[in-house]
Design a protein that fits this description.
Family: Belongs to the CarA family.
Strand order of the largest sheet: 8-10-9-11-12-17-16-15-13-14
Number of domains: 2
Order of helices and strands: EEEHEEHEHEHHEEHEHEHEHEEEEEH
Number of strands: 17
EC number: 6.3.5.5
Structural class: alpha/beta
CATH topology of the largest domain: Rossmann fold
Bound molecules: glutamine
Radius of gyration: 21 Å
Subunit structure: Composed of two chains; the small (or glutamine) chain promotes the hydrolysis of glutamine to ammonia, which is used by the large (or ammonia) chain to synthesize carbamoyl phosphate. Tetramer of heterodimers (alpha,beta)4.
Protein name: Carbamoyl phosphate synthase small chain
Distance between the termini: 72 Å
Catalytic activity: hydrogencarbonate + L-glutamine + 2 ATP + H2O = carbamoyl phosphate + L-glutamate + 2 ADP + phosphate + 2 H(+); L-glutamine + H2O = L-glutamate + NH4(+)
């Protein structure tokens, strides 16, 4: 295959089927392989690119102006700094302008370089988005070379040979190596971050690649938070005497993660403790309860998705980031559907009919995005309070 590259091209996106998008490279030089998805959020690129659920994915922003407010130390979603536990690449329409924001401590480009993340601007992101909408999320390689030397055939081969996210357990790579305590409360104007002071509930978070704002939202409901690695046994979690357990978001295929996680989640459900799952945690709770998950064609990635809480009939506008979904038809008796996407009617939430066990596909912690769904953390707090009242 021969592809004529236009003069001045320093960045390319090469898809598995040989399609080449030519533009301007940013961030690190080199190449990155992954599934290409589009995200419709208009703000929050730093939170998006540091979300561990985007491991092995290249994020194409539909909003054209990305990077113009620089980056800061506060808007980081992953725990720690390992850039391999986050999005692999970024694509946006316009080249970023110099940072203009009082919170900015670094330019977007320097930050991408410091993290080794390859980025691309100047391509027709609308055409790419329409393609994903029609044909699903392709496998692709994004490459940046300031001298414009690209071996397109080799890049295409790499994309075509990649097996993709189905069957891939990435939570095992995204999780914390050790248990730790988390103390930071939600960001507040004008103080910024502060430690939480109320310790009304003990929450153990199983970290499959957790976003920090989930942890902060738990601190926000007065929880004392202990993070444990993905493979922690239920017995060890219960020995910590939690009032509730949170199953976190995370990257990869839930079915591939389920092998070690599902039996432990089943034991946690049997213990009667309140359990709250978010995104990957939702999918794995569903698997543990006997349901199935499926791969989606285009997935949901954005900060403007309407979701209906069937239990209250209220619509919430939510943050989304998932490429797999719980198959509604597979929900066993006793598992109730609680939330549904008003974009495509996919399942967005489940609960046990007679136990404080529930989960949602969307991101109630936002970051980025609207905070309509923060009430779910309050619901979790209510369940923990009620459970303690029964024991006492
Ligand atoms: N944000 C998440 O937890 C994503 C869950 C899962 N990896 C998916 O893509 O569906």
């Amino acid at each position: 295959m021969t592809t004529e590259l236009l003069k001045g091209v320093t960045g390319v996106l090469v898809l598995a089927d040989g399609t080449v998008y030519q533009g301007i490279g940013h961030g690190a030089s080199g190449s990155a392989l992954g599934e290409v998805c589009f995200n419709t959020a208009m703000t929050g690129y730093q939170e998006i690119l540091t979300d561990p659920s985007y491991m092995d994915q290249i994020v194409a922003f539909t909003f054209p102006h990305v990077g113009n407010v620089g980056v800061n130390p506060d808007d980081v979603e992953q725990l720690g700094n390992d850039p391999t536990r986050a999005a692999k690449g970024a694509i946006f329409r316009d080249a970023p302008t110099p940072p203009a924001n009082w919170r900015s401590t670094m330019s977007f480009n320097d930050w991408l370089v410091s993290r080794g993340v390859v980025a691309l601007s100047g391509i027709d992101t609308r055409a790419l988005t329409k393609r994903i909408r029609e044909h699903g999320m392709p496998h692709g390689v994004i490459a940046h070379d300031p001298n414009g030397n690209f071996d397109i055939a080799a890049l295409q081969k790499q994309a075509a040979e990649w097996a993709g996210l189905v069957g891939l357990d990435l939570a095992i790579k995204a999780t914390s190596a050790q248990s730790s305590d988390y103390t930071t409360d939600l960001w507040q104007w004008p103080e910024g971050y502060k430690d939480g002071t109320r310790h009304e509930h003990n929450v153990v978070v199983i970290d499959y690649g957790v976003k920090q704002n989930i942890l902060r939202a738990l601190i926000g409901i007065g929880a004392k938070v202990k993070i444990v690695p993905a493979e922690t046994k239920a017995e060890d979690i219960l020995a910590l005497k939690p009032d509730g357990v949170l199953l976190s978001n995370g990257p990869g295929d839930p079915a591939a993660t389920g092998a070690y996680a599902v039996p432990e989640i089943q034991k946690l459900v049997q213990s009667g403790k309140p359990v709250f799952g978010i995104c990957l945690g939702h999918q794995m709770l569903a698997l543990a309860l006997g349901a199935k998950t499926v791969k989606m064609d285009q997935g949901h990635h954005g900060a403007n998705h309407p979701v209906k809480d069937i239990t209250t009939d209220k619509v919430e506008i939510v943050s989304m980031n998932h490429g797999f979904a719980v198959d509604r038809e597979s929900l066993p008796a006793g598992v109730v559907e609680t939330h549904v996407s008003l974009f495509d009617n996919t399942n967005c939430g489940i609960a046990l009919a007679n136990q404080p066990v529930f989960s949602v596909q969307h991101h109630p912690e936002a970051s980025p995005g609207p905070v309509d769904s923060l009430y779910l953390f309050e619901r979790f707090a209510g369940y923990m309070k009620d459970a303690k009242a029964v024991v006492a």
